[in-house]
Amino acid sequence: QPIYLSDYRPPAYRVTHTELTFDLDPAATRVKARLHVERHPDREAGAPLELDGEQLALKAIAIDGQPLGEDEYALTERGLRVERVPARFLLDTEVEIAPEDNTALEGLYQSNGMYCTQCEAEGFRRITFYPDRPDVMATFSTTVIGDAGREPVLLSNGNPVERGELPGGRHFVTWEDPHPKPCYLFALVAGDLKKVEDGFTTAGGRDVTLQIWVEEENLGKTDHAMASLKRAMRWDEETYGREYDLDLFMIVAVNDFNMGAMENKGLNIFNSAAVLTHPDTATDAAFQRVEGIVAHEYFHNWSGNRVTCRDWFQLSLKEGFTVFRDQCFSADTNSAPVKRIEEVSFFRTAQFAEDAGPTAHPVRPDHYIEIGNFYTLTIYEKGAEIVRMLRNLVGWDAFRRGSDRYFERFDGQAVTIEDFVACMAEASGRDLSQFLRWYDQAGTPEIDAHGEYDYANGVYRLVLRQRTPATPGQPDKRPLHIPIRLGLVGTKTGRDLPLTLDGEALGTDGVIHLHEEEQEFVFTEVAEAPVPSLARNFSAPVKLHFPYSREDLAFLQTHDSDGFNRWDAGQRLALLALDDLIAAHRNGVEKVMDGRVVEAFRALLAAEPDDKAVLAEMLTLPSEAYIAEQQPLVDVDAIHAARQFVKQSLALALRDDFLRVYEANRREAPYAPEPEQIGERSLKNVALSYLMSIEDEEGIELARRQFEADHNMTDVRAALTLLVHSSRDDLADPALRAFGEKWAHDPLVMDQWFSIQVSRPQSDALERVKFLMDHPAFSLTNPNKVRALIGAFAQNRINFHRADGEGYRLLADVVIELNRLNPEIAARLVTPLTRWQRFDETRQDLMKGELERIRGEALSPNLYEVIEKALA
Ligand code: ARG
Ligand code: ZN
Predict the structure, then answer these.
(1) Fewest beta carbons within 10 Å, which of 149, 228, 652, 797?
(2) pLDDT at 153
(3) What is the crossing angle of helices 747-758 and 713-724, to 10°?
C-alpha cells in the first residue's frame, strides 16, 4: 500500500476555515468540527468528499445543517466518504476520542495529566475527520473547554479572543489563528501549567509576548530557552529579513514526546529534554541542543509554516532548509569550526550508515508506506547539506535574494522543492538542473581522487572520479554536480598556493565543479609541490578518497588553513593507525602504536590553542561507530580493542601533557554556557578521559574530586561516566548510587543516569538494562526513557553485538512491545538490527532471526515498512 509522489493530485475539496470545539475528558473528549469546504477550482465537479480519520467514534454529521442519513456517508478504516456534496458547504461533525489511551503520542494525548497534541505528519486525523494533507490550508478558530481546577490553562494556536466560565466547574478559551495553515500545524495544550514571560519587539515594531509554559517544578529551567528564542528571532530578522507575525509566541514543555519538538503555529510544543536546562542538571551539549532546537522551531515559522510543503514527499523542503538555518545560527553564536566538526562527524557516522543500509532513500523519496518513518537523517541533515551546497554554489547574496523571492512568491502556499531551487536559479542566473539530482538520488557519492605534480612545468593535475553505489530500488546512478572547495598546500612554505585553473585565478581557497563521472583539473603556475586539501569544510556530503601518506596527513594536520580539514587530517591519520591495529587484533599479532600519531598528539598538546573546543575535537579519536563505517566488515571487538589500545598508548606516552592540560583548564568561575568556558571544559574532560583510560592513580583522584565537587552537570557527568566506565566497581558503584539518589526526582537527569550505566564497556551492561527496566523511574511509554535505556544500550557496540545474540534479543523484545504502544518509536528503535549486512555471518543470522521474529507479530505500518526493507 505505498503512496507515490507521481500520483499527486490537488485535493478535490479544500477547507478555507475550520472551527473546532474540544470538550476535554481523559476517556471521552468530544470534538466538534465545522469545516467551511469548497470544491477545488482545478478539480471536476461531482467528486466525492473524502476525509481522513482514524480511531474516531463518529457521533453526528451534517451538511449545511442537515444531518446525514446512514446511507449518505460511509465510514472506513481510514476515514469518511460522502458521495454527493455541493460545490460549497459547511460540514459539521462530532467525534469522541480517548486521550488517556493514546500511547502512540500522535493526535491528542495526555502527558503527566496534561493534554497536548502532535499532529505532524498525520496525527490530526486522530482528532477529527479532515483532509489531513499539507496542501489544504485554513484559518482556525478553536474553543477549548476544560475543568477549571485541573486545566486552568487552555492553549491553542494564534491569539486568545474570548474566555469564560461554564457550569459544573468548567471554563473555556477561544483562540483564533488568522494565518491559513495545514492541520499538521494545529496544537492544543491544557493543564496545570505555569509560565515564564518575556517580550520581543520586532524590527517592524510589533510587540510580541513570549511565553514558556512548564510544570511548576521546572520554572527555574527556562532562562536559556528564552534567551535562545530572543537571539533566534533577532537573527532571523538580520540574516533572512524574516519577522514574527503574531502578538504571542508560546513554547510548552512536555515529558512524553516522540521527537525533539514541533513548530505548531504560535504554539511550539517541546520535548522537555529539548527546552529545559539548568547548570546543575544539563550539560553544555544539552544547552547547545536546546539553543539549536528552539531556533529550529522558531525558524519554521517562515520555512515551513508561512510557506509549507505541497505533500510529504517535499518534507525536506522545510526540514533541510530549516536545519541549515539553525546550523548557521548556532555557528554564529558558538565556535563555528567546532559546530561544523560536530555536525559532520555525526553526519558521516549516522547519515552515511543510513544511506548505505536497507532503508536508504532520496532526500525527496518517491514513495513511502508510513511518512512517520521519513523523519530521517537523510531528509533533515542531508537535506541541509544540499541547501548548504546551494548557498556555496550561488554565493550568499544570491542565496538571500533567492530566499526572499521564495518567501514572497509562495507566502501562504504549499509548494515543492523545485519551487525552492527555481528561486535560487533565478536569483543567481545559474543552471541548477543537474544539481537537482541530489534530491532524487539516494546513497552517498564516493569520489576517488588522485593528483600529480609536474615539477618541470609547475603543473598540478587532479583527477576526480565519482560514483554512487546502488541503493534499494535505484541500481543505476547518474553523475551529480559536486562542488569541491580546495586548496593546494605548498610542502615547502606550508601555505596555500594561488590556484590557477584554465587561466582563471581562483584565489588560494577555491571551488571546482565536478559534473562528469571523471574529470581532470589542471592547475598551472604551481610553484612548489603541494598536498591537496580537498572538500574543505565538508563542501559536499560525499566520501572522498585520496591516497594520502601518513606524512601528508601529519603535514595537513598542522598546516592546512582550513580548520575543518586540519581536524579531518588528524582523523584520517588516526584511522590509518587504527586499521593496522584492527588487522593485528584479528590476526592475533602484537599491537604496535604508530609513532606518528603520538608525535602529532604531542604537538597538539604543546601548542597554545586559539580554540580549545577545536583542540578537544582534535584530541578525540574517531568513534567506534565511525571506524566501523570505514570497514568492509565490522568486527566490533577488534575495533573496540584497537581504539582502546590507541587511547591507552597515547595516555601512557603523554600522561604528563594530559595532566598539565587538565590542570590548566579547570576554572572555578560560575558556570555559563559560553563558547570559551565550554571549550575549556571539553578540553579538560578529554584530557581526563585519557588519564582514566589507563586508570592512572592521579587521574582517578581527579575524576573523583571533579565528581564530588559537583560544580556543574557537564563536569559531573563527564567524571561520573569515566568512573562508571572504568574497570573498578569500587569507583563505579558509589558514584552511581550517590547520583541516582540525589536526582531521583528529576526525570531528565535520571535519563542520563540510565544512559551512562548501560553504555559501559563491561560485560554486565546487558544485565543492567534488564534490571533497570524494572526501575521505578523507567517507563516504556515514555520515549525519552526508552531512548536513554534501550537506545543507549544499542549504541554500546561491544555489548549490543554480544556473540550470544542476547543484545539483539533484548532489543527485539522491546520493539515488539512498543509496536503496540508507540509504533513510531518502535520503528526507530529497531534501526540497529536493520544493519545486519555489515557484520559477520553468525551475527547476521542472529540479527535476521530477531527481525523474522518481529515480522511474526501483527505489525503497525511503521514497523512493517522498516522490517520488510530490512529483510528484502
Ligand atoms: N517538524 C518537527 C521538527 O522538525 C518534527 C515533527 C516530527 N513528527 C513526527 N511524526 N515524527 O521540528
Ligand atoms: Zn523541523
Answers:
(1) 149
(2) 98
(3) 30
